[in-house]
Each structure stands twice: as C-alpha cells, then as structure tokens.
Structure prediction request, 82 residues.
Amino acid sequence: MASKLISVREYTVRAHQREIHTRVFNFICKQCNETTNRETYGPRPLYCERCRPPQPPKRQQLKPAAKAKPRPMTYKSNTDLD
Ligand SMILES: [Zn+2]
Prediction:
C-alpha cells in the first residue's frame, strides 16, 4: 500500500451522534502471548478475552429509590404583624 503525508486543517466538530461499528482485531495478547482475535468498538485491544474478560456493559443500574428530600415549607401565621 502506498502512503504519503497530507496536511489536515484544524477544525472543530459539533457534538453529534454517530453510529460506530465494532471490528474484529487479530492480535497477540500481551499477557499470554497467544494469537487471538477480539471484537471491539475502540482501539486495538491488548489482551485476549481469557486474560481480560469483557465487562458487563454497566454495573448495577438499579439504584434504591431516592428518598424525598425535605422541602422548606412556608407556614402562614394567623397573626398579622402591622
Ligand atoms: Zn491472553
């Protein structure tokens, strides 16, 4: 594959949503040094699934229902202060 350097202008990108895809990387695990492959969204993984088992997407998302906060109350007094 031919390659060359090109100049890329600096630019900013607005916040947006983008669909990303996983890809399967073939690589050598840093820990057990075995050829393996792994599917990730991000950069090339370093460890195989045996050395670094995939994490569950999110830890317990069930939070105990938050208790209602005490709210400041305004009490009306029956006595008018003139
Ligand atoms: Zn490994």
User: Anything to note?
Assistant: Residues 29, 31-32, 34, 47-48, 50-51 surround zinc ion (CB under 6 Å). Strands lie at 23-28, 35-40.
